[in-house]
Design brief:
This protein has one domain. The protein is built from five helices and no strands. Helix 1 runs antiparallel to helix 4 and helix 1 runs parallel beside helix 5. The longest helix has 39 residues. The radius of gyration is 18 Å and the shape is elongated. It starts with a helix and ends with a helix.
């Protein structure tokens, strides 16, 4: 197994989950932060240049649900492959262990980002109302 294939195996699912978690920040946290900081004009300019942000914000339950499903699938893949053997070559074995650790951290960061986005999209508006 080459290094590229090994890297893909160990980090693809967590990276995809992190990217979808970041989409929750763009859809729901960014507008809330801009409004809180008094940057309504910047938000207006941003939504006029990128109208898809409004579509994402209107469907935030779908965005959060989809990203949570992908986070869950990434965790499942990581769980099912936790005992997969690393290559016998010492250099590749060391790389495999490092990539497994990196993939785990990426997945944990993805869950953290998702939690921050969920808090700012669903809990914070109720607290401020």
């Amino acid at each position: 197994m080459g290094k590229a294939k090994l890297a893909f195996r160990e980090t693809a699912a967590p990276t995809l989950a992190l990217v979808t978690s970041l989409s929750t920040l763009v859809c729901c946290t960014l507008p809330a932060v801009l409004i809180t900081l008094g940057m309504g004009a910047a938000l207006s300019s941003l939504t006029s240049n990128i109208p898809q942000l409004i579509w994402l914000s209107e469907r935030k339950a779908l965005v959060f649900g989809g990203s949570l499903v992908l986070l869950g699938l990434a965790w499942l893949v990581r769980y099912l492959t936790r005992n997969m053997p690393c290559p016998a070559d010492p250099a590749l074995a060391k790389s495999c262990a490092r990539l497994r650790s990196l993939g785990g951290w990426v997945l944990y960061i993805g869950f953290g980002v998702w939690a921050i986005g969920a808090f700012s999209a669903f809990v914070l508006p109720k607290l401020l109302a």
